[in-house]
Amino acid sequence: MSFSEFNFSPRIAAGIDALGYEQPTPIQEKAIPPVLAGRDVMGLAQTGTGKTAAFALPILQRLERGPRRKPRALIVAPTRELAEQIHQSFVALGAKTGLRSVAIYGGVGVTPQTDALRRGVEIVVACPGRLLDHVGQGNVDLSGIEVLVLDEADRMFDMGFLPDVRRIVRATPADRQTLLFSATMPDDIKKLAGEVLKNPLTVQIGQPAPAETVSHALYPVAQHLKTTLLKALLPTLGEGSVLVFTKTKHRAKRVAEQLAKDGFRATSLQGNLSQNKRQAALDGFRAGDHQIMVATDIAARGIDVLRISHVINYDMPDTPEAYTHRIGRTGRAERTGEAYTMVTSEDEADVRAVERVLGQRIERRTLPGFDYAMPKANADEFARGPRPPRPQPKQRPMEPVAQGAPRGGAQSHGQGERRPASPPPPRPRTQPQGRAPQPAGSTASRAR
Ligand code: AMP
Fold it and tell me: Please, which of 20, 65, 103, 226 could form a disulfide with 87 given CB 3.0 to 4.6 Å?
């Protein structure tokens, strides 16, 4: 089928053309007609399926008519990266519509967001905490919201945002259109859906891209050889972008540093980075300046880089769902990708759980010529001299950490990441700086 069948206005069709979309993805085929018709929709789909355009296009079409410069569509998302990406999608797809979008999230200055809201926008893409701050200060009025989108609802639940989400829903008119997207349907999300959706149509994209466009392989290896094996594997992978997942922030940082030291174009993305550094790392990865990004699950949530050819699990994810989320970053939009997972003997049960979900046994591979018997003393993890003592406690926080209120302090508002229960290592003061051409989601971007 083709996009022309949806009868989008010429201005929106121009946006679709500009992005090079030739035909709708399955979720777009299924979701666009009911959303255009004004129905509530529950979308069971993950990032990587094209779900953003599935709601952005019909919303733009609706907003082209009616009042301007007041918030009429609100998209709530769990992380600032996702909010920023959704905002950018609206800007790109709506480039010819004259509609304006603003991204609202914590970790950056409030004033540019307030200014943008004051100047007038039709579309607000926001993380819950910071949005509520603006609502509380009277900077944004949600009483004119016609369409509300709750994106990655399961992740918002995981991160403890549901009370905030309910507060936001209550601030919008009862007769709004509501769309709820979630990769999974835990009971709490079913309950939320029952509360916020009216006679919804459920649109499901069954286990998407991974099974079809991604091939999987396991690399059994001793824990102490993982970095050495990674360094030996990377040169065999070609030119595409590589996303490496580690279990902890500390490990993400250290692995990226070790790779960079050996001349790999590697960077890391983890929750301890200031907003500026996160954005710089993401931009560098997207632009191809960094071929390799080492990230934790939460930091990498929603990363949208089309050219990711390989996802490498440096550490086995804890659940099959986490595995699916991670490898959903490759093989996107019908491209092919490969997912490699380094496993130790302790990971066997988790591997079996993933194999059950995939419905297939994953191939075990060894890298020819690699010395799997290398003693600890020669491996990368231990190749350096003894480290100087650290001021931090030995037990470094893992992420995600214990359940807790996500809005415990000024830093946590709408940042989309839970803070560790124990004090994190000192972080550089974030002094948000504008990025050209668009300050990081902090100003309204006029859809050109
Ligand atoms: P999403 O699931 O919304 O994060 O989208 C995943 C990726 O697919 C993004 O890079 C989109 O730009 C891209 N995409 C979305 N729809 C289409 C389409 N119809 N054709 C090609 N690429 C698409």
Answer: 103
The two three-digit tokens of residue 42, written as one number: 């529950």
What is the rounded CA–CA span in Å between residue 313 and residue 218? 9
Q: Which two tokens stand for residue 446?
A: 């006029």
Nearest to 330 by CA among 227, 441, 241: 241
Cβ–ligand 1 distance for 94 under 6 Å, the answer no
Q: How far apart are CA 175 and CA 179, in angstroms?
A: 13
Instruction: Determine whether 71 is exposed, middle or buried from the number of CB atoms within 10 Å of its CB (0-12, 13-18, 19+).
Output: buried
Residue type, 166: R
Cβ of 88 below 6 Å from ligand 1: no
- Confirm or reject: Cβ of 18 under 6 Å from ligand 1: no
| Higher-scoring residue by pLDDT: 388, 49 | 49
* Cβ(47) – ligand 1 distance below 6 Å: yes
Residue 24 Cα, ligand 1 centroid: separation in angstroms?
A: 9
Regarding the beta carbon of 37 and ligand 1, being less than 6 Å apart is answered no
Segment 178-216, tens digit of pLDDT: 999 998 777 889 999 999 999 999 998 754 434 466 789
- Name the residue ranges covered by the structural domains of the chain: 3-205, 214-378
Q: Give the pLDDT of residue 364.
A: 95
The one-letter amino acid code at 31 reads A
Mutate to test the pocket of ligand 1, among 23, 49, 52 (most ligand atoms within 8 A of CB): 52
Q: Which CATH superfamily is domain 3-205 in?
A: P-loop containing nucleotide triphosphate hydrolases (3.40.50.300)
Q: In whole angstroms, give the CA distance from residue 23 to residue 46.
A: 19
Question: Which SS3 state, helix, strand or coil, does residue 199 take?
Answer: coil
Percent of the chain whose pLDDT exceeds 70? 79
Least confident of 189-203, 217-231, 415-429: 415-429
- CB of 48 closer than 6 angstroms to any ligand 1 atom: yes
* 59 has pLDDT over 70: yes
Under CATH, what is the fold of the domain 214-378? Rossmann fold (3.40.50)
Cβ(332) – ligand 1 distance below 6 Å:
yes
- Residue of 304, 325, 329, 334 best suited for mutating to test ligand 1, as the one with most atoms within 8 Å of CB: 304
For the chain, the residue count is 448
The owner of tokens 């069948």 is 5
Q: Do domains 3-205 and 214-378 have the same CATH topology?
A: yes
Which residue CA neighbors atom 18 of ligand 1 most closely? 21
Q: Which atom of ligand 1 is nearest to the CA of 47?
A: 2
DSSP state of 70: S
Collapsing DSSP states into helix, strand and coil, what is residue 192?
helix
